Amino acid sequence: MASSTGNFPGAHNYTFKTERLCFRPLRPDDAVDVFALKSDPRVFFWTEPQKHESESEAWIRARLESDCYLSFCVEELPDTRLEKAKQDEKTPVIGIVGGTQLPEIGYMFRPACWGRGYATEAVKGFIKFYWESFPDGHPTIAEAEERKFLKAVTGPAEEAPQTRASIAVLKKCGFDYWTAQEETNSQRPEQTTVLLVWRCWGPGHRP
């Protein structure tokens, strides 16, 4: 496992693998793949999807400039049965997983990959990587108590099928419901949305 490097505070060169997926750092040249995710209303169903690739470029740069961000692009591992010529083709990014503002984490996947268990595999893989790399929590997290856990945010279970699926993924990965918070609905500013916050304690940190 490599140490953290890069020209941006949030850049790193960590990589890891799970049974079917490989994880590599988010890069500025990932804007096309990120835009494919963030412009899809099926992925961003409760917030405003992006309309221009430049928004994805700015989104990537903002993450790389944050020292509380630890994000990975997710790619499928090459099938060893494929011809080498096909393996040499650029592997598309199928998702993103990691810390949005640590200790908060999140993930998103292309709809074509839904239903394969990739989200659960990716979140479990990230959690394992995170605690093996930072057993006392990420050093950029200011509050000592917040270094003991990871958290994730969803909408209410009744809101949409995607939300129910996300909650199911989090529960499979060891998250428990923690609390609720209100947030202004980006698509309807006059409304507020109740968001659910989920928490997963690190090894040896549960009270």
- Give the SSE string: EEHHEHEEHEHEE
Distance between the termini: 29 Å
Taking all Cα atoms into account, the compactness measure Rg is 17 Å
By helix and strand content, what is the structural category? alpha+beta
Order of strands, widest sheet: 1-2-3-4-5
Beta fraction = 25-35%
Largest sheet: 5 strands, antiparallel
Uncertain residue ranges: 1-5, 80-85
What overall geometry do the principal axes of the alpha carbons give? globular
Number of helices: 5
Q: Helix content range of the residues, please? A: 25-40%
The number of strands is: 8
Mean pLDDT: 84
Written description of the protein model:
The structure is a single chain. The protein has about 210 residues and is an alpha+beta fold. Helix content is about 25%, strand content about 25%. The strands form two sheets. It has a five-stranded antiparallel beta sheet, with helices on one face. Strands 6-8-7 form a three-stranded antiparallel beta sheet, covered by helices on one side. The radius of gyration is 17 Å and the shape is globular.
Q: What is the compact description of this entry?
A:
By secondary structure, the chain is an alpha+beta fold.
Element layout with pairings:
Layout: E1 16-17, E2 21-25, H1 31-38, H2 53-64, E3 70-76, H3 84-87, E4 95-101, E5 104-109, H4 118-133, E6 149-154, H5 161-172, E7 176-184, E8 192-201
Antiparallel strand pairs: 1-2, 2-3, 3-4, 4-5, 6-8, 7-8
Helix pairs in contact: 1-2
